[in-house]
Request: fold
Amino acid sequence: MKSFFTILTILLCYLPVMAYSYSLVIIKTISDTRSSFVTNQGKMDGINPGVRGTFILDNFSFIAEAVSVNRNYSQWKPINPQVRIPFEKEQLVTYNRAEESVYGMRLTNQTTAPNRPETVNTFNEYFTDRRLGESRDPDCIALRLTFFQGLTSSTTSVDDINPDRQGASFYASYEYALAHFLSAGLGARLEQESIAASEGANFVSQKFILQGEINLYMPVMANLGHTQIYMGVFLGFGQARLTLDEYQQNGAVNYVFGARAGANLPINPELDLILEGGIETMNIEQAITDTSFAEDELIQTTDQTNTFLSIGIRKYL
Reply:
């Protein structure tokens, strides 16, 4: 009787471990060369780069290693480089966290997937694996250098409308995945603008803006070098300073609102080149206290519209 309870206790302790070791995963995509695949489990499910496990389908099983992992997905490659993945997209397969063959099943060195022609396209495999076949998880850090040109500008109590304005800004942001094709971001931007007034005065405007954004990503275009098109809107506020020789005028950027569209051009699986353009509108409020410009303190409000082009890099996390 004592040994019966001992065996029962061992089984009760071991069964949860077995249940945890085995799970069903969905194959999200397979590389063109069928040498790697992506599942719907990631860091949230305890998968980390370097983890190994056994994948099982019918009478076929093999050991694979996680080579790239984000929050919701993981990319796997078989330990045996001769193995070609027999799975299909959106197929349900068994994943065993242990590196072992399952009883009643056999490991095989099958080199081609059933009824699948062998293809060799390392470029497609390189980027398709990273981007999960359709898109990448948008968690990333982005750095942009932007050049802009003023389109319209009007300031209360100033007759000079639409002075010649141009400048540049540096914008750093972090994007967080809301969904597979949707991200929200937060960033900071430093901007310097040159303003040539009609009376010959040249002003310099400097701004610091905190900015939030929402971005929508299109599927990766494999036929165009795995370029990915995206669109976004942004909204921000901050501080502004206008300088003319020794005179400085401080104020607030009440809001900046804009829209942009761009393309991510892959450099490697972790890094993209950003090319984008857009348009924005901005409202600036400044108080003039210098009596050479106004007898009493005067609140000036400026409305601007700018068009811009940006170049930058995007580093995926």
Summary: The longest helix spans residues 2-21. The mean pLDDT is 78. The chain has two domains: 2-130, 140-316. The helical segments are 2-21, 122-130.
